[in-house]
Amino acid sequence: MIESKITEMATMQPQIVSKETIKPSSPTPDHLRTHKLSLLDQLTPHIYLPMLLFYPSEGCDSPSQIADKSHRLKTSLSETLSRYYPFAGRLADRATIDCNDEGIEFYEAQINCQLSEILKKPEPETLDLFYPNGILYNDSYKASLVVFQITHFNCGGMAIAMCMLHKIADGAAVSSFLSDWATMARQSGEEVSPKFISASLSPPNDQPDMPDTKLECENCVTRRYVFDASKLAELKAMSVDSGVPNPTRVEVVTTLIFKCATAASTSNLVSSRPSVLLQPVNLRPRMSPPLPENSVGNFSWFFSIMAKDESDTDLPRLVGELKKGMAQFSEKYAKNLTANECYSLICEAIKEAKKVLNKNENINMFKCSSLCRYPFNQMNFGWGKPIWVGFSSSKVKNTFHLTDARGGGIEAWVTLGEQDMAVFERDEELLAFASLNPSAFYADCDFVV
Predict the structure, then answer these.
(1) Residue 278: what are its φ and ψ, rounded to 5°?
(2) Which family does the record assign (predicted)?
């Protein structure tokens, strides 16, 4: 079975047909040649964020039409980079980007299969093949800050894979960049004006001495689970019946995965150990005045909830704790605080977290990042919206990534250690609400794939 899977993946390996460097369409002015990274940018690990958009054939994709699409993508990307000028630069040191217009790497590939062959069972390891080789989860890669690979299918469909250095953008900023690129490609005339404001946000004088954040890459397994809207409604009803008001779909999915992952991680232990869930929150709307929605960089921070043992993992209780944590976070960071005052609070939180971790070295840490409600499934470059938005496997243990699914559902990309995943994927409570890697086809799809 393993040999057949390896053979199948080899036949689906995209073949690179070209590599280019896309530079900004106009040079960056001298006064913008140095871009300062914010405190949050500097605290972010050197990791490339993945995003994978699949587009079906329009039904009559001739070689000239495919070439025209590629040309439109490259030309509009060059124009977009003139607005997102730091993205075309290089890291000068930990705190600055040299906006030298060196450009970004752009690969084009061909794959000898139909788009439908990928979408019928989109295994994370198969999706990894659509990304430029050697960049995902490789913290030694120090060149282009953004890398794209465009892959053409035999049917005329297309995949657009993006790797973006997390130090320059969080999920909201990635969404803004892709939206602006799509706007430029459509030549819609809409204004594209990202805000690079981190230089105006001075880190406090007493910021903690933080070493470079290193990735804890291990032998991990990533699984894709899909929660349909009807199952989300059942999960939300369970919390409401237990007295939790207005639980969101993200809250119920996050806590269910946390509960099941915690159980898996402690299944082989003689005694339980505490588990902590870190939940990132977008700070942009919570500052005073609110930062522009299109502020580029990292403007997210965390709050956490803890389960000391199995008795703390009752699902409605966890949902309630998550809602409480979010309310406290919002209150703490929404009291007419400026961005710099928020930074001071973040520095205090870092110091406190270091104290807690020093006292409790055996804590099991999990992190959930939600990209739900960001318009990745709306990225229209001139030939319609994506038929599906994918992700990748991961080498960072105990992480969950949530994305929107059709019809109000949620896709969860869960990464755990190999032993933990073997237990997690058999969890009956999880499987009562989630489907393991179902087809990415939908009944209302009438595209050529």
Answers:
(1) -95, 130
(2) Belongs to the plant acyltransferase family.
Report the sign of the C-alpha dihedral through residues 356, 359, 361, 364, in that order: negative
Assessment of whether the complete model's pTM goes beyond 0.90? yes
Q: What distance in Å separates the CA atoms of residue 427 and residue 32, rounded to the nearest whole number?
A: 53
Closest CA to 326 of 264, 263, 370: 370
Judged by phi (left if over 0) then psi (alpha if -120 to 50, else beta), residue 297 lies in left
Nearest to 137, CA basis, from 396, 405, 448:
396
The domain segmentation of the chain, as residue ranges, is: 2-200, 220-436
pLDDT of 204 > 90? The answer is no
CATH C-level class of 2-200 = alpha beta
Residue 427 to residue 258: CA distance in whole angstroms: 12
Q: How confident is the model at residue 332 (pLDDT cuts 50, 70, 90)?
A: confident
Question: Can 2-200 and 220-436 be said to share one CATH topology?
Answer: yes
Tell me: pLDDT of 1 over 80: no
**Side chain identity at 354, as an amino acid letter?**
K
Q: How far is CA 71 from CA 153, 156, 159, 381, in A?
A: 17, 16, 15, 12
For the residues 333-353, what does the mean pLDDT come to?
72
pLDDT at 209 over 70: no
Q: What is the pLDDT of residue 415?
A: 97
Cβ neighbors of 238 (< 8 A, separation 6 or more) are: 252, 315, 316
CATH T-level fold of 220-436: Chloramphenicol Acetyltransferase (3.30.559)
Give the span between the Cα atoms of 287 and 285, in whole angstroms: 6
Q: What is the mean pLDDT of residues 225-232?
A: 98
| Backbone dihedral angles phi then psi of residue 414, each to the nearest 5 degrees | -110, 130
pLDDT tens figures, 38-47: 888 988 889 9
Nearest C-alpha neighbor of 214 from the set 377, 43, 413 = 43
The more confidently predicted of residues 231 and 10 is: 231
DSSP codes, 284-351: GGGSSSPPPTTB-S--EEEEEEEE-SGGG--HHHHHHHHHHHHHHHHHHH-SS--HHHHHHHHHHHHH
